[in-house]
Design brief:
By secondary structure, the chain is an alpha/beta fold. The protein is built from 7 helices and 7 strands. The chain is elongated, with a radius of gyration of 19 Å.
């Protein structure tokens, strides 16, 4: 008990640093499964995956993955019926960094889509990998 009292600050730092190490693993489980850019291109080319960009229209207009459909996250729940014919195909969701598309995965899953994937790192990772975008 004396040790804890004398080293409270060090114990707090150890706890926070441990939590920071575990957080990415916990977050990775949410909004998954996640696919990297290589897996995504494989799914697009070989499995005819549908790519949905959940960024707003202005962001989408600045550049997006080739063939991606624009469906802003704020409209996704309302417009999910437009995607009903694609329920049997793999779906890849993307945004700028992968955060907004995490929410979109849940929306599609709740609406009966089973084969839904989140692009890890979003469009930023796509561009960093040197993959093509269109405007």
């Amino acid at each position: 008990m004396e040790f804890v009292k004398n080293n409270l600050f060090l114990i707090a730092v150890a706890f926070v640093s441990g939590a920071m190490l575990i957080w990415p693993l916990v977050r990775r489980g949410a909004g998954g499964p996640w696919v990297n850019t290589l897996q995504a291109t494989h799914m697009i080319n070989r499995e005819d995956a549908l790519v949905i960009d959940v960024r707003d229209a202005a962001e989408y207009a600045k550049g997006h993955i080739l063939g991606a459909r624009s469906m802003p996250l704020a409209e996704l729940e309302r417009r999910v019926g437009e995607l009903a014919k694609f329920k049997s195909r793999p779906v890849i969701l993307t945004c700028e960094s992968g955060n907004r598309s995490t929410n979109a995965v849940g929306i599609l899953r709740n609406n009966g889509f089973a084969n839904v994937h989140n692009l890890a790192g979003g469009l930023a990772a796509w561009q960093q990998a040197g993959l093509p975008v269109e405007k």
